[in-house]
Amino acid sequence: MRKKHIDDVQPQTVDEHYKLILEDKNVIDTEATDVTSNDLPEWYNKHLYKEAQKFYERNLMSIIAASTVGLVIVFAVETILKVLLYTKKSSSTCSAFKRYIETILHTHNIYTCDPNDTDSKWYKSINAIRWHHVMATRMTKKAGVGEIQQRDMVLTQFGFLGYTFTASKYFGLNNTLEENEAFNHFWRVNGYMLGITDNLNICRKNAKETTELCYKFKDLYGTYLSNGSPEFHEIAVTTLNAIWYVDVTADIDSFMAFAYKLHGLPDKKLGWRSWLIMKYREWLFYLCLVPYIRVIVRAYSNLFVRIVLWNARYFPILAWINHGKDNVRLNLYPKH
């Protein structure tokens, strides 16, 4: 029997879609196996997907920055935080370094490698992420902590695309309609391949509707942030401290102030160092929007990010000095 198109199984309106996601109680498949290029959805568009990857290549710093904010903000979701705390993958700066640097590198592979080639790093990263999800949910189920829910997957999906749609100017992005449609398709495919059910996938039939849905989740995250638990703040600090080993401008106070600003929330007064770091980033993002100058700024920032990614993968000297080389050794593909 032919599988229904994703457009036919998603709710007709954005409001219905939002309500469905919040009320869903289904958990991820604990028997999920590796995927190949044969598992790409019938609605996969090679051209659109490639255009999104080109969009990423042109805006490395901005998209990684937006994703990093989203990556940390999802800790404010109680069910996600509960799993993270139990698995202890973020309990120390050392373990957090391995977890989140691996996450950033996997995301980079998804943005840059070929989903049409089963032997590419795209599938190695997708399947590594799927494997980590299965292992984590099996552990938490056995311990009675609960399982990873489909809802959690969608809330995390927002973290990787939501701010690119709802706060693009804050990150120095001036997206065209074509870029938005490509980016929407990109994360629609990724969500599908990571096991998010079609009816819940946050990416709708067009970027306009996806953006409307993302604004609703952005408001929800504003509520989560304003009521953030001590455990959330503790894990956020640990994560930013871990990222500092490859980017010395990573600073928890300036980061949280920026996150609060994105959501229109008041924040405490910053110390001079944190204030300078925040202003440096704001000016960098602003200059990415200024005609003529933005070409130079983006070239500089993209080169800087490539150096950071290379350093994180092959030569994280600060992490080695602080924790020992063996203790922070990355294992990107645990199944291979």
How much of the polypeptide forms β-strand, as a percent range?
Answer: under 5%
What average pLDDT do the residues reach? Answer: 93
Rg, alpha carbons? 19 Å
Oligomeric state of this protein: single chain
Secondary structure: number of strands: 0
Whole-number total of structural domains: 1
Proportion of helical residues: 55-70%
Keywords: Membrane, Transmembrane, Transmembrane helix
Transmembrane segments: 60-81
Task: Describe the SSE topology.
Elements: H1 6-9, H2 14-23, H3 46-58, H4 60-73, H5 78-87, H6 93-112, H7 121-143, H8 150-166, H9 177-193, H10 207-226, H11 230-243, H12 252-262, H13 272-287, H14 293-314, H15 317-323
Helix pairs in contact: 2-10, 3-9, 4-8, 6-7, 6-11, 8-9, 8-10, 12-13
Commentary on this structure:
The chain crosses the membrane at residues 60-81. Keywords: Membrane, Transmembrane, Transmembrane helix. The chain has 336 residues and is mostly helical. The protein has one domain (6-323). It is built from 15 helices and no strands. α2 (14-23) crosses α10 (207-226), α6 packs across α11 (230-243) and α12 crosses α13 (272-287). The longest helix is centred in the middle third of the chain and has 23 residues, at 121-143. The chain is globular, with a radius of gyration of 19 Å. The mean pLDDT is 93.
